[in-house]
Amino acid sequence: MDSKVRQTYQRLTEDCVLLDKKGYKIGTGQTPVQSFTKLALLRLFCFLGNEGKPLSPAEMVYISDFMGTAYTKDELMRIIRADRLTRDGVIDSFIMLCAPFAEAEADGVLPDGTGRLISAVNEVTLDFIACDGNTAAEETATLGRLVFRMRNFTSSWLAASGTRAPRKPPAEGEAAPAPAPEKKPEKTLDALMEELNSLVGLEMVKSEVYSLSNLLRVRKLREERGFSQPKVSMHLVFTGGPGTGKTTVARLLAGIYKCLGALSGGQLVEVDRAGLVSGYVGQTAIKTRQVCESALGGVLFIDEAYSLTSSTGQNDFGMEAVDTVLKFMEDNRDDLVVIVAGYTELMEQFLASNPGLRSRFNKFIDFPDYTADELTDIFLLRLRSYDLKIEDEALEVVRRFFEDRCESKPETFANARDARNYFERVLTRQADRLAPMEAPTDEELMTITVADVVGIIL
Description:
The protein has 458 residues and is an alpha/beta fold. It has helices spanning 3-21, 33-49, 57-67, 73-83, 87-106, 113-129, 137-161, 189-197, 203-224, 246-259, 273-276, 283-295, 318-331, 344-352, 355-360, 372-385, 392-408, 416-434, 442-446, 450-453, and strands at residues 25-26, 31-32, 236-240, 268-271, 299-302, 337-342, 364-367, 389-390, 447-448. The protein has 20 helices and nine strands.
């Protein structure tokens, strides 16, 4: 075990001892936190080490060293068979572990206890995954799902207890913008992950991002230990309709990649066909290369990428833009990530248009449409960000509006953008209602009524 990771685990053990002394237990039983934590990690290691392959000798040595007991392979396999280890079962044990840490944080016994727990579990498990130098896609996917569910559970628990205020992202699932100082401090990896976790919905998207980040961290650990690593493409395809948070997640990914040392700059350059293609012979390659150069060190996000290859006329230069991007990707493979985005079916056609596209973009993340409940939550978060509240009867009108919108899904349906546009129309309605009043009260200024929400059309 790496010395830094050993110190991290020691701090986690000290936190567990403190919780045991203070009387916090696991579930409704009397299981001590410290022993439960060690057992949960043992079960996680056994599951990961046997996921899709046999336990390696390096993994068995790591487990024995970690537990302070010399396990044979047969003994570890008996643990796996006896406990009938499944991914959900292993993850659920860590959700149980989150509860006493969240309770202790709410009581003020262990400030940021949940954050320390999640960070420690992630770091220790990454160290285990990296111990044998093998490719770890399945292992990091499981860890990504585990960390996501732990963050989700603790955030919900602390918000319900009043310890941590709910996040207030604006309507498109983005985190609330910070005030603009003269020079913004760079966000830490933990801050970016918290921002990701605060987005409404997108559960599977968040899990995929956690897996990607853990895969990069494991690769870095293995490289530091002298293991050879195959090249892994970081380029991505985002599929889904408009307003599903693709740009927001791309921006967060750019920052995450920078924090992990995969990119030098971490900026996001967003562009579409108009930003790449020129109407004159010889100009498209120049225009596209300039855009690519501005994205070097960060993420180039090409929205509606299928529009580059959807026309095949004599004077269409979309394919020239594609060829230029592919060449730039090849020449700068170590410091550029390209994300192409658009509707699922059309993106399949885009990738089929050029053999070079399919070979470079082999990782897909799907962004599903928001549900009516999620759109309502986005609307409410936007209300709260402006210190507004809504009457119960008016809220029912809002909920029915989004239910009808999600059921009918007209051509103009735009997911979270619908929530934003609806919110803006509600504010206009409220302003029209309040303007004739000579001196509206604070309560009236803060309250959205039925009159403000009924009959709105997008």
